[in-house]
């Protein structure tokens, strides 16, 4: 209960002002395409040079919390996921916004973010020592199986065709191997100088989601004004709260999956949202509604990716190991003030540690209140005429992908992948599994190679990858996931005809 | 229309210095960017952000320096970009890591060598150290080598990648001790390699002194030896490799500094070379570096040129056997 | 539904299969073997799935994907051309802000349903474009301090 003693510090006027600044600034940064939470936090580090350590961390903690949630705004309204964490949010969130229910999608997303986020921070407060052990338990072989588990999600993400979903995933896995191989340093598939540094995930993400969107808007041509104006439904917050109450299954699946997976260094943050989405889809009686603007999809995805915020800091705060890129940047923010994470932090600087953690707790709630307040207004984005929207999204995509690492090559990659994806989508391929392959490929490969190097030095590859309780558990999950997808595919064949599939697609596009 | 936009844009820009073409007297007249070939939050990135934080002061460059990260493949992605695509106008600086980029250029497969870059100044020297988990049975390098002699090729130890400082240190250790070890390169840099040691995925590891110092403070690792010529001020109790009977010099010490691409105008190089070492010597910079556990080592352009040449020679010799 | 989407599906899946075959060939012929181990595994699965899809398309059994229709392609063409010129040439050659403003204005003029003959709609387009420029500049140059390539006019 030590954290309660430092709660007062959060409400000191200067600190609270910084908290508000970080929260609102974070939401704006998070909603900007191309600015992942890591970049946003890195941008704020210079501002903390002149602040007290606790104040600097309040700013960073608040910004981290709200950029993750802010990513959902562009995912829902523009179909540009701000970071890999928000991919799953586009699936139902954007579809809902397209039906004129943008306010509802945003309300649900902020409420479930807050629930997941508060739960995650509470885990960080109460269970840190236990969680630290769990985070360390994942060695190369386990991370490899975890990545494979992520790959099996691919098959069910794309509801229309399992084979094409897997094929899209393979394209993504292949794209991820372009460039220097991370361990050996060998060059692979470099057919153009733009990809000599490999394909960066963020520009790829922007291209694969935003550009097909832009081209689809072009395809509608010069429609008459009255034909395209969408009525945006007003949506009282109370209704969203009640809906959350009815969707406790999705909410608890999202929150638990997010906090458990978010802990695992290097993997968690990126796939927590997608895995939670997949799980709640598989366990929902209304699974056929997923992907058509179904509230459970948004709730599961957003509660998961905010629930991961707290646990993802456990390895940093207890063991001084940054478990995610964002945690690495936060480490810099601590070191600059001469504070070393680990036991030193909690023993000698408790006011810094607990004020930081408390500020994330309060930050979640502030973020939610502020988000709910602007949701109605933000949802009006859906009323922007097609022509303007297409041009704005194109501009944002260019600037966003450039700003990731000031590289023209990234912009070219973004546009090429995006244009290609539009045509692939017309033939039943989809972007989400492709991106998942792009993200998981390097994780699977690096851990497989490291694992087999350790294995050949000590025992044998078979023993290393196939023994041990955690390995077997993960392999079991992989088999269950594959089996379930296959079974669903066979079951659905019975009643899905070609016409049904086309009808469903028409509804989506 | 075009003129309208241009005028509007100019008004927005607040008319920054228009005199660009004649001479370089006014350099720098706009913000400068510095490329770091490792990810945000890594040791190089962290230090680069600190040593450049006073660049905007009047007595330094008078213009801020912004850090751009281009991580990937142990630094190869960033340095390839820097050698082939960065503009040689003095507004694009890069951070170098010795021995990393020289070792990679000797290994081949990259588009740069020491010839591709012009050093400006060095800010830090971070020796490699050998770490083992806090509960490891090893208490000295003799224990480690003893284990490796009994179990050839079975002593797994992590490091930040292939052909980086840690790998050089590993090769030197193998050579000096005359044993076969299993070096496991990590794809997540020093932080990933450290995690592998703490979690017990590997029996030991080579890591940066700054990171290892922190991990030792947190009670997670033991530091058994320093790959340098003399003991380090941060770790006065940890003996060097030479003290423990291994003939290992400072070839793996990670020197970090600033460089520009070849072809940058000489007056600009001279101006930078004159100002940047003083900028590093700023007391605020030194204070923050010390707080973060990062050893500083300021060297001028001429000293760095000599150091690069010397490293090139030793590394060629060491890597010739591979 | 005529046979048009079917032949389109054959071409599309054929292209994907061709990429797959190229990747497989490269993976199995390039050195060093250790670095290409993973690409080999992936590309093998890739090719199997791509050939399966191609086979299904050839037999006319493709269930999903509407293919391309002529009317939509004609609508897309000018916009896509502007977008490609903007990204691959103008952004670097003219500078980001100049090129983005021009591309924005052209796209707006092409796809905005308001009539082209009326002066008032042009004023409206210019105002929207100026607003876009102001927001982009404010966000990326002032707030985030992104270093964009040099502009041609300043």
Kindly report how far apart the N and C termini of chain C lie.
54 Å
Strand order in the largest sheet of chain A = 1-2
Count of DSSP strands of chain C: 0
pLDDT averaged over residues of chain C: 86
The helix tally of chain A amounts to: 25
The helix-and-strand class of chain C reads: mainly alpha
What oligomeric state best describes the polypeptide chains here? heterotrimer
pLDDT < 50 stretches of chain A: 494-498
Q: What count of domains describes the coordinates of chain C?
A: 2
List low-confidence stretches of chain C.
none
Given helix and strand content, the structural type of chain A is mainly alpha
Describe this structure in words.
The complex is a heterotrimer of chains A (509), B (322) and C (154). With 509 residues, chain A is mainly alpha-helical. Chain A has one domain (2-508). Chain A is 77% helix and 1% strand. In chain A, strands 1-2 form a two-stranded antiparallel sheet. In chain A, strand 1 (179-180) and strand 2 (187-188) form a beta hairpin. The longest helix of chain A has 50 residues, at 87-136. Chain A is globular. Residues 494-498 of chain A have low confidence and may be disordered. Chain B is globular. The longest helix of chain B has 20 residues, at 301-320. Chain B contains eleven helices and eleven strands. Chain B has helices at 2-13, 43-51, 76-84, 100-107, 141-150, 165-177, 189-198, 209-217, 266-280, 283-291, 301-320, and strands at 32-36, 65-69, 92-98, 117-126, 128-133, 156-159, 182-185, 204-208, 221-226, 254-261, 296-299. Chain C is flat and about 55 Å long. The model of chain C has no long low-confidence stretch (mean pLDDT 86). Chain C is 77% helix and 0% strand. Chain C has two domains: 3-58; 70-143, no CATH class. Chain C is an all-alpha fold and 154 residues long. Chains in contact: A-B, A-C, B-C.
List key phrases describing it.
heterotrimer, B: 322 residues, alpha/beta, D-Maltodextrin-Binding Protein, domain 2, 2 domains, six-stranded mixed beta sheet, five-stranded mixed beta sheet, 11 helices, 11 strands, 39% helix, 20% strand, disordered N terminus, C: 154 residues, mainly alpha, 0% strand, flat
